[in-house]
């Protein structure tokens, strides 16, 4: 028997059951590149099975094969002991497996009912039977105990609720094997707990999950088994209870030891007379109020809190991505025109935004074009930079940040998530900013990419620049000389370097550990 826990609820998964899905000896090549080499995976009925590995390890390719989007060059996939359907039989695949992706496939402008039955609406006399569709949607949501209105606009739902609607849609086809791709990436602590409780309830109702996450602690919280891929190969599959965190990271990276991130507690303190680089006074917006703090040159400050705390909006306001309702931001004593990205850049603010796909990158352009986007005017006359200059700059950034790419002309859409994020970092550093604002800089990246991205913080700090790290990731915050905690739109606490995990987390959740 395998035993793990979700919250305080013990979970037993019987062994010896037939696998819901099994991949045996799967190999997939793209030209001369092997995306998977002889990979095997076995997921038992009723379990949550984690699939982990660095970006580029082969996870996405394996998922595309398990969902019938690609055919393996070698090897087989079986569902319940039977060979997978042909690639062309999409209905048969939907009956067996579904994937809830990190980037939602829900259509926001449609209702919940319309999303649940899109392209298969009940019809009467050749037209959509709207009352029947709403009844069917309500019955489906009630059956799986998903508490959303069938007539609600999908775009008005929380991220958590949209994920549950996607799961319900998959279950409505008959699938009982669901792949969850980074399901907690946009959720805060309470939302994650609720999602995990629903996953556990669905497991008890006979649903099996393949859980993909870069948050390794979640693997231990929700999963009973784990499979590690590295360099397109299967490294290990084991019960999570038999694979401690250090061994799991070693399997992912091929190196011993945990995450190698500089801890600010070991640094020499800044001189008392270090000049101010950033001064934020009375900043207020739609989800934050009267936020004030300052950063000195050579200082790294963290800004953390739950997803709904307002921390992201504050970071975006400083970088010009959002327009606050009130307040003032000064850079090196100069008042900044708010809500203006160009003004922020001109005044020495560089930014890694939260959403790299929509705000950080042009996916159809090359590494060089993306990295040099903020400095084109410096590379050529009239805002037109010669390709040779762009490529030379891109090559320097590839070397400086360890971007794994075929060269500066490599199109960004073809890079792994970790390398895409390094390109975003390159763009932020290109203008040689005095203040670097990093919003969730390591979200969705693997262990080694996380180390590389966070090493930039130390390098920039040593150059006398100021860094604001806006994140809920504890590893991101360990690089900070102090951490400010936001709760319900306000800064409520400050922790110097050397803080204890439980104390910081309690503050983020609004809990006072010292209250009598």
UniProtKB/TrEMBL annotation:
InterPro entries: AAA+_ATPase, ABC_carbohydrate_import_ATPase, ABC_transporter-like_ATP-bd, ABC_transporter-like_CS, P-loop_NTPase. It comes from Paraburkholderia caballeronis. PROSITE patterns: ABC_TRANSPORTER_1, ABC_TRANSPORTER_2. Transmembrane segments: none annotated. SMART domains: AAA. Keywords: ATP-binding, Cell inner membrane, Cell membrane, Membrane, Nucleotide-binding, Repeat, Sugar transport, Transport. This is Monosaccharide ABC transporter ATP-binding protein, CUT2 family. It comes from the Bacteria. GO terms for molecular function: ATP binding; ATP hydrolysis activity. Residues 21-256, 259-513 form the ABC transporter domain.
């Amino acid at each position: 028997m395998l035993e793990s826990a979700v919250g305080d609820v013990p979970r037993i998964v019987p062994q010896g059951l037939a696998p819901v899905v099994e991949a045996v000896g799967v190999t997939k090549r793209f030209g001369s590149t092997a995306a998977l080499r002889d990979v095997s995976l076995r997921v038992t009925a009723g379990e949550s099975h984690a699939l982990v590995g660095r970006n580029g390890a082969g996870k996405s390719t394996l998922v595309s094969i398990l969902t019938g989007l690609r055919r393996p060059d070698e090897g087989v996939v079986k569902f319940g002991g039977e060979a997978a359907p042909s690639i062309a039989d999409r209905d048969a695949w939907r009956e067996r497996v579904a994937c809830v992706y990190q980037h939602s496939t829900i259509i926001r402008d449609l209702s919940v009912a319309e999303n649940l039955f899109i392209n298969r609406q009940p019809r009467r006399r050749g037209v959509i039977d709207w009352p029947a569709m709403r009844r069917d949607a309500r019955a489906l949501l009630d059956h799986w105990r998903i508490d959303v209105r069938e007539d609600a606009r999908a775009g008005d739902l929380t991220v958590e609720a949209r994920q549950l609607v996607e799961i319900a849609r998959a279950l409505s086809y008959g699938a009982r094997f669901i792949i969850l791709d980074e399901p907690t990436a946009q959720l805060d602590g309470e939302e994650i707990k609720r999602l995990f409780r629903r996953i556990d309830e669905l497991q008890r109702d006979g649903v099996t999950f393949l859980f993909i996450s870069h948050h390794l602690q979640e693997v231990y919280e929700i999963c009973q088994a784990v499979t590690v891929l590295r360099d397109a190969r299967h490294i290990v599959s084991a019960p999570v209870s038999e694979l401690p965190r250090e061994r799991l990271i070693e399997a992912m990276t091929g190196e011993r030891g945990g995450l190698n991130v500089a801890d600010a507690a070991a640094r020499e303190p800044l001189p008392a007379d270090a000049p101010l680089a950033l001064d934020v006074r009375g900043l207020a917006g739609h989800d934050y109020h009267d936020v004030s703090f300052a950063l000195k040159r050579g200082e790294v400050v963290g800004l953390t809190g739950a997803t709904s705390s307002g921390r992201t909006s504050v970071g975006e306001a400083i970088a010009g991505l959002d327009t606050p309702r009130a307040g003032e931001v000064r850079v090196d004593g100069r008042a900044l025109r708010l809500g203006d990205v160009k003004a922020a850049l001109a005044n020495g603010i560089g930014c890694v935004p939260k959403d790299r796909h929509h705000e950080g990158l042009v996916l159809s352009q090359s590494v060089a074009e993306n990295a040099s986007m903020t400095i084109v005017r410096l590379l050529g006359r009239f805002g037109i930079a010669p390709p040779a200059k762009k490529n030379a700059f891109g090559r320097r950034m590839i070397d400086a940040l360890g971007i794994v790419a075929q060269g500066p002309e490599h199109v960004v859409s073809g890079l792994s998530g970790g390398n895409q994020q390094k390109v975003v970092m390159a763009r932020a550093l290109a203008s040689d900013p005095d203040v670097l604002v990093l919003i969730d800089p390591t979200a969705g990246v693997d262990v080694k990419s996380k180390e590389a991205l966070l090493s930039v913080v130390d390098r920039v700090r040593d150059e006398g620049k100021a860094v604001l790290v806006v994140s809920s990731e504890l590893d991101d915050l360990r690089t900070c000389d102090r951490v400010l905690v936001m709760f319900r739109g306000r800064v409520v606490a400050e922790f110097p370097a050397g803080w204890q995990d439980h104390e910081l987390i309690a503050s983020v959740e609004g809990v006072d550990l010292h209250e009598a």
